[in-house]
Amino acid sequence: MSCYNFQCFVSFATGMINQLVVILIGIGLLLFIWGLVKYVAAGGDEAKVAEAKQFIVFGLIAFFVMMSVWGLTNILVRTFFPSNGLIIPQFI
Question: In whole angstroms, how far apart are CA 80 and each of 3, 14, 34, 73, 75?
């Protein structure tokens, strides 16, 4: 199935961005968890605590940025390409 109009391009780009965002959210979450593990294992050593705090901050920043990109992408797509009516899921 080939599609050569702007709406198909936007749909493809949105799908790719959504997949990339999910992967990057996972990486950010792993950084955050790794920072927590390092913080607990630091045992009061100031250098190790500072390094663990950097991992935690980087993980939180990555998570926040990716959620913002994901939300902005969905807002833009739904603003410029609204669906044809309300779709209500049916449970049989």
Answer: 18, 13, 39, 11, 9
Model confidence pLDDT, tens digit, residues 34-89:
989 999 998 888 999 999 999 888 888 888 888 888 788 778 777 877 765 444 45
Q: Would you say residue 72 lies in a domain? A: yes
pTM over 0.85: no
- Distance between CA atoms of residues 37 and 24, nearest Å: 20
**62 in a structural domain:** yes
Q: How many domains does the chain have?
A: 1
Is residue 92 in some structural domain? no
